[in-house]
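Re: your question from the hallway

Yes, I did run it. Sequences:
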Amino acid sequence: MSAPTLVAAGAIALSLTVAGVPVVNVRAEAIDEQPRVVVLPSTQATSPLTVMWTGSPTARPTLFRLTGGDPMMLTRRNISTSSVAEVNVDAAIQGVSAISKRIAHLRTLGDGWIGDHSLAPNSGVLAWLEQHTSELDAVRGISLIPMEDGSVALRWMAGALDITAEVRPDWTLYTLVDDVESDGLEEHIEPLTDSALAAFLNSHASA
Amino acid sequence: MTEGSVYPVLEDGSETLLRQVHPDQVQENGVPDSSAFMAKQPHNYLLSTRREWVGAKQAYEDWVAEHKSVGTYGITVADIHDVELSAFDDSTDPAMPQGHASIDFRGVSDGAARKRARKLRDRSVQRERIYPPVAEDESETAPVET
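Structure:
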């Protein structure tokens, strides 16, 4: 699908990520000099449409979801049409899991990503996690956080438990259960195996 | 009082040290991960911050000149003491920027360091991000009018 261009110059890009929606119509217009992008998912859409608004470097991309054939208008306050760059629709991301998208992003981080002495997320670690996306997608509220030593930490809350499962480049799995209420702490390190990850995920699924 | 007779230890509990958080250290729920408030071996177990007098905006701008950040968060010296850590001003180190201070995680076990970092994160997030102010940034990601 071709990307409609609103105006030539500007610093703001809207990235529309299609997830499971077969057809998306995007219309750009200016009403009262405020840019609006109207997204009309196919009425046959059975999965939510994910729209990622990447308005500025300081703002975390925000995800909006709509279902069915309802139109959604995205606006940015106090910005003229001349500052909107373009709208891109990435149909290639259709059907990709949230974990896979996150892993794909982590692959873009290089050495020094967070300053001197920091290492890129280890490629072997990312490849191993990629093999377990379905298990990770099933953990409610899970986040993949890169560490400076190339490890990737799986982080989530289960009730009062703040949980970490850190996959390390030396092929070990470090786990930590931090009880926010009792102030208790359980940590463990073991060889990284499919069964070790599965056992930990199963015993500490989100509440 | 000095740290190893080299750098002055920070004692004023009311001072807020300034910490940057990388976008990839933010969890899916929008909350900074506790790893952003913990120091590990690559940095000799010293967590880098700027002194309050530098200013949250300046600290942010200095950092994003070469790195990424979602903004400046604050950690008070009292918070640091409450989790049984200390901080010192090491800005006289030629490798450090003006007003640099380090929170000392040396000698703390991995699990204990993570717990303390989580507590520092919780306190900092409770006060909300200092710069950019949350209200200003929220307007940029305002949803959707239907």
